[in-house]
Design a protein that fits this description.
Blueprint (H helix, E strand, L loop, with lengths): L2 E3 L8 H5 L5 E2 L14 E2 L9 H5 L5 E3 L5 H10 L28 E5 L3 H13 L3 E6 L7 H4 L11 H8 L5 E5 L19 E4 L5 E2 L11 E2 H8 L15 E5 L3 H11 L2 H5 L5 H8 L5 E5 L11 H11 L3 E4 L4 E5 L2 E4 L4 E2 L3 E4 L3 E2 L17 E2 L2 E2 L5 E3 L2 H4 L5 H16 L11
Parallel strand pairs: 5-6, 5-8, 6-7, 8-21, 10-17, 11-12, 11-17, 12-13
Antiparallel strand pairs: 1-4, 2-3, 9-18, 14-15, 15-16, 19-20
Length: 422
């Protein structure tokens, strides 16, 4: 499923900034921007991430299957005679005109090869002459795109192909299976041989409910890692039907419910390992109660995610709000009212938080490294991007604008600005 923009478009270009695939045109500076009735989404490169819909101030960006047929046709016709632009092609468009790092090659270390790290790498290549080394503890590119996107959203994972193209750039050195903590320290608290570090390590640790018996529940961190086949991941609980409770009102919570309620035919169409498909198919879960601790107006899921869940199992999902869980036992989930919801499994999906990074300050309450526009407070030469910078909110596209801000801060710092005429 792709997205389309309707004639209600306000052309403020906020969607252009967050589109991870450079699929929305005409963008600022291109012929036709600000003169036409609408922006358009290229259906050939759209990966169904929904970043445009999340940020659109007038609700003009919608899934193609819920858009008017004439809007879908208008979007396709705009690109009919145009070649698709690659999101990671550094020659596809002119970079913004802010000052670049000069004075010869320098070395920047990017820690983390998920969307935030890869967009930071791209920005560094566009704005500087630096050699960029990208490290990740995993052997693979992609971060949560590879290990966090639901297996029935394969189109979204196509962005990994662009990441692979990026690390083949002549100024990029890709070092998979490398823990940044093992790198030797040099002067000024930076790894030896590097002038700056961009930490883009994400925030994959599940937040806790803080209730009795929670250790016997299954967190979103564990469940998502298991069904996406992350190396070393396993399912910490046995799936028991006929009813499960998922605490959380974000898209991850809806992903969990949708996977649990998918039938064997639907599971076969997903990108799942055989053992995962077998366990889900045999779980016996026939109904899921989605429990929100706040009201429906404060729910974090997107309209398209809710529509997708209800299309799979609308009559087997119960949405409950303003509920306060207090304990999880073999009888089910007890609420503050004294009611117990009978269930074989409890899944918690109330968000993620970052972990401390050795040598850097950490705000445990917010789960982030304290920073000013990406520059780590009190640690010159250290920068952050993505969830470890702003908290675990926003999807793939938001990381694009986030990384750009961080790199702009880096290149304008006292360490990075080229003197006039240099």
């Amino acid at each position: 499923m792709t997205f389309a923009i309707s004639g209600d478009c306000c052309s403020d270009a906020s969607c252009v900034a967050v589109c991870p695939m450079n699929s929305i045109h005409p963008s600022p500076g291109e012929p036709g921007f600000g003169t036409g009735a609408s922006l358009f989404i290229d259906p050939r490169t759209c990966i169904d991430c929904g970043a445009c819909a999340d940020i659109c101030p007038v609700d003009a960006a919608k899934p193609a299957d819920s858009s008017a047929a004439e809007d879908v046709q208008r979007n396709a016709e705009y690109f009919a005679e145009r070649q698709p632009l690659q999101a990671m092609d550094l020659d596809s468009w002119e970079p913004p005109t802010y000052q670049v790092w000069g004075g010869g090659p320098r070395r920047v270390l990017v820690v983390g090869a998920g969307p935030a790290g890869m967009y930071a790498t791209r920005e560094l290549l566009l704005r500087t002459t630096a050699e960029v080394t990208v490290v990740d503890r995993s052997q693979h590119l992609g971060g949560l795109v590879r290990c966090g996107v639901a297996p029935d959203h394969p189109q979204t994972k196509q962005i990994i192909e662009n990441f692979e193209r990026l690390v083949r750039h002549r100024r990029v050195h890709w070092r998979p299976g490398t823990d940044a903590a093992t790198l030797r320290s040099g002067p000024g608290g930076l790894p030896d041989g590097y002038d700056a570090v961009v930490h883009a390590v994400g925030a994959r640790q599940s937040r806790r409910l803080g209730i009795t018996g929670e250790d016997a529940a299954c967190s979103a961190e564990d469940f998502v890692a298991w069904y996406n086949g992350r190396p070393g991941a396993s399912l910490p609980v046995e799936l028991v039907g006929p009813q499960a409770v998922v605490v959380g009102n974000g898209n991850v919570a809806l992903d969990l419910a949708r996977l649990l309620l998918s039938d064997e035919e639907q599971l076969r169409a997903m990108d799942l390992q055989r053992d995962v498909r077998r366990v889900l198919s045999a779980s016996g879960v026939k109904k899921v109660v989605l429990l929100g601790r706040r009201g429906p107006d404060e729910a974090a899921y997107t309209e398209s995610a809710l529509r997708e869940l209800l299309a799979v199992a609308g009559d087997r999902v119960e949405l409950r709000y303003h509920a306060r869980p207090t304990a999880w036992t073999s009888a089910g989930l007890t609420l503050g009212t004294g009611e117990t919801i009978a269930a074989g499994n409890l899944f918690t999906a109330i968000g993620f938080e970052g972990r401390p990074i050795d040598g850097l300050p950490f705000d445990a309450g917010r789960g982030i490294v304290p920073n000013v526009r990406g520059a780590v407070v009190g640690r010159p030469g250290h920068y952050v991007a993505g969830w470890i910078k702003r908290g675990a909110r926003g999807g793939i596209g938001v990381n694009k604008a986030c990384a750009q801000e961080t790199v702009m801060t880096l290149v304008s710092s006292s360490r990075g600005v080229a003197s006039p005429g240099s």
